[in-house]
Each structure stands twice: as C-alpha cells, then as structure tokens.
Amino acid sequence: MVIRISAFVWILVLGTLTGMSQDRFQISSDLYYTEVRDSVYVITHHFPRYGSNSLFVLLPGKQGVLIDTPHETTGTMSLLVWIQSSFGNLQLTAINTGWHQDNLGGNEYLLSRKIPVYGPTLTATLITERRDELKDLLLEQTASLEDRRYYESYRELNLLPPDHTFPIEEGLLLEKGGETFEVYYPGESHTVDNTVVFLHSKKILFGGCMVMSMRHQRPGFIDHANMKEWPESIYKVILKFPDCDIVIPGHGPYGNDRLLEHTKEILEAYNADAGI
Fold it and tell me: 3.60.70.12, 3.60.15.10, 3.40.50.2000, 3.30.565.10: which CATH number matches 20-274?
C-alpha cells in the first residue's frame, strides 16, 4: 500500500523533527518565503520542478543581504518588489555561493539595480567560461514542458558573474548592520566552487547546494560534483561551525545542524555503493 502524505503534513512532520515552524507565505506564483528567525527569511523559488532556497536578512540601518538569488530575472524582480513593499528602500548586498543558476540567475537584474554582488573569483570564472553549457542544459530540461514560460525565461536569461570577487581559499568576512557574514570554502562538493555562509551573531548557516535537507535520501544533480571530496568538505564545515543553530540547505526544508551529518551520511553511503 502506498501512503501519500500532503505537502502540508510533511511540513508539519519536519517541523516536529526539527522543533522549527516552517510556515510558508506566497510572494508570487513561483516564489515563497518562510521567516526562520526575526528578520531572517528563507526564499524558495519553484522554477519549475523543485524549490531552490535563497536567504534574505533584514539588518538595522535600512540594510539587507541576499544570499543566492532566484533562478532567473522574473523571480528576482518579484523578490525585490516584495522586499521594497515590506521593508521600504534598503541598501542591498548580494552573495553568490556557486556558479549554477539557482545561485546567481538573478545577477543580471541585481547588477542593473546597482546592487553589489560578492562571490569567489572561481565562481566568476566558471560562469563566464561555461554559461553557454549551463544555459543549454537549462533549455534542454525545460524544452518539453507544457508551460513555455520556463523555457522562454531561460532562453532570454543572461548569466552574469558577481562584480565583487575574492580568492575562494581566503573566503570573505562581510560586516553589515552589526552582523558578520563569513563566506567559507571547505573544498569541492556539489560543484568545485560551492561555498557556505555563516551568520555569526544569528548562528545561522546557509549551506546552499552543498547541504541536503532531511527529505533527501540521495544526492541530486551531480554532473558537476566532486563526489570523493564532498563528504570531506562537509566534515570541514561541521568542524568550522560547531555552534550553528539553523542550517539552510539549497533545496528543501531547513533544519538544525543534523542536516550536516545527514548530508555526510548520504554522501558516504552513495560513494560506498558506487565504489568511490
């Protein structure tokens, strides 16, 4: 017998397991937000098949930091409209944690609004050299969908690199509104350039695509992954940030630091089966 669990019930179950409420509110047809903690919001963009997470942090002094962007321009525009209507005109800063579209697909719009976008030099190099490869993949994935807006949006998308770069091995300490955002690179993982971002005073870790949610039982897209190094990189994150209270994965519900161990276990089991 197959037991079907609704998305609402699944959210309640996850909330019980993690001790965290995961109430979602709609911004647009594809975009949702969940308030993780006061003034900290997980932004989830369903474009089209699965939800990808960004993080928006409202800070004192009419400032805000966005970690990763929605997949493309329309979602990013909708997000900025929501931010302005909810919090007024803010001085915004963005951070990219990787070179895929669910990390930086909104860069073109952010840069057109004169919003500084920080990211590793390696990320800038990868998207500059491989944007056509990534775009071809996105078009292939959406070509057969009945709703043509996904294909057309990716067809028109201009994938741009961050305009404020730093050596990936050095990382970045970004001070904004009394909060320290630490961008950390533990080594290759889901991609060769994925980083995590730790909010020091709030004890929140944005793991991005390096970290899997509790609903995931195997790695997802791994065509650009270093499967051997990925679990080692996760272990380095565990050692680096032992006091994180909340962990935001790239896809799926957020949780506590158990998500890091869960990701490591999933990767080790996959590698053992694959003989890696």
Answer: 3.60.15.10
